[in-house]
Structure formats: structure tokens, C-alpha cells
């Protein structure tokens, strides 16, 4: 098994090629909103000598901003179709949580992961470390950071979501831990472990509609492998016109 993994659901563009024996190559870059430009170049560079050997693609499906998340998922589906290999989705928050575990910073209690959702909100989920593995507790959600912190006191948080609210973090004495962003190496590890364990996802090559899944994207309980459909958790700001008003001269 040789897997291409990448995630564009945060301001980080991260790409990795990995197999059962470990990581072959990886690249990470803070890109802001330049995912379409940078991620394709990273993929081309890392797969130049092994493209024909790839057996799977794993792409971070968010939750994340509409445009950047869609760039990653659309790229994964296009490559999967061109190479004729399966494409699976990985929750971006799961990848960040896996980074906490794999960096040997395993908390002794449940911890949270929060990423920036804009609109003064965060995407978040709770996690538990079990036997050097990370287990998501519930589904990913979106909400105001004040409400999330109040509902989960004494919780450590990874991700970049709360770093954007330093005054709130200081006032509530929140412990922010690394990593701030997902790493494609962790996307790859999650996907490879799940695939080798026999986990499957019910949709491996969906067609994106005008909303990239209409903001849906399901996260079945206990699932690691998701359908490669953007997990927005809410509808995008831009909506198609449903009615056209004709102005008479």
C-alpha cells in the first residue's frame, strides 16, 4: 500500500506520501488562501517518482472554510479518477488530534481540538487517548468559543481555533497544546491503519454538487474513514439565486 495524503482545510497546506513501512516524503507550508496554487505543486513534487505506485488517496475533508476545503476534496477526487484508485476522507480535527498523540504529548484526560471557523466561531470535537490511539468523543461541531469553553472547563485544546482569542484563553486559563494544524503524515497514518484494519466507507467517488455536498458530510460514530465530501457543518456564505427579479424599464 502506498498512499497520498493531504489536507487543505486550514491555512496550512500539508501533503505526504506514506506506506505501511512509514513516511516516504512530506511537505508543509502556511499558505493562507493559496491552497490551489501550493498544494498542487506539493503533490506534483512528492509524487514525481511514485505516482504510478500509488494505491490510495486520503484527503482531509474538514470541517474547514468552504473554498479551501473544497479545493482539497476536488483535487483528491480528480486525482483518484485519473489514477483509478480509491479516495477516502479523513476528518481534519481527527488528524490534529492524532498529532497530539504521535508527538508523545498524550494528555492524561480527554482533550479538545478546535480550528478557526471564522464568523467568531470554532469547529471543535473532544478526544480521548486510548492505548496510544486517539478516539473521537461525539461528532465535530461548530459554535462560539465562549460557549464551548464554558461547557468544557479544565480541558486542553489543540488546533489554531482558540489561539485567535488570546484574551479569552487567558481569562479562562485555557491550556493550548500543539499541534496548531493538521499534518498530512497523520492523515496518512489514520487512513492506512483504518484501511489495514478493514474499515470501509460507503462512498469512495461521489460527485460534488454546487455546494460540495450541500454542507452535509456525515461522520458515523466511531468511523475514521469518511466519504470524500467536504464536512462544512454549515452552509457556505454564498448561496445560489433561487428567484430572479426582472426590473421593468
Throw out a few tags for this protein.
single chain; 249 residues; alpha/beta; Nucleotidyltransferase, domain 5; 2 domains; 6-stranded mixed β-sheet; 5-stranded mixed β-sheet; 27% helix; globular
Write the layout of secondary structure elements.
Blueprint: E1 2-7, E2 12-19, E3 22-30, H1 35-46, E4 56-60, H2 66-83, E5 87-90, H3 92-102, E6 111-116, E7 122-130, E8 133-143, H4 145-151, E9 156-158, H5 166-171, E10 175-176, H6 184-196, E11 225-226
Parallel strand pairs: 1-4, 4-5, 6-9, 9-10
Antiparallel strand pairs: 1-2, 2-3, 5-11, 6-7, 7-8
Strand order of the largest sheet: 3-2-1-4-5-11
| Mean pLDDT score | 86
Unreliable residue runs: 202-206, 208-216
> N-to-C SSE series?
EEEHEHEHEEEHEHEHE
The domain tally reads: 2
Main pleated-sheet profile: 6 strands, mixed
Structure description:
The protein has two domains: 136 residues, Nucleotidyltransferase, domain 5 (2-Layer Sandwich); 73 residues, Nucleotidyltransferase, domain 5 (2-Layer Sandwich), CATH 3.30.420. 27% of the residues lie in helices and 26% in strands. The protein is built from six helices and eleven strands. The strands form two sheets. It has a six-stranded mixed beta sheet with strand order 3-2-1-4-5-11, sandwiched between helices. Helix 1 runs parallel beside helix 2. It is globular, with a radius of gyration of 18 Å. About 6% of the residues have low confidence.
What is the compact description of this entry?
With 249 residues, the protein is α/β, with parallel strands linked by helices. The protein has helices at 35-46, 66-83, 92-102, 145-151, 166-171, 184-196; strands at residues 2-7, 12-19, 22-30, 56-60, 87-90, 111-116, 122-130, 133-143, 156-158, 175-176, 225-226.
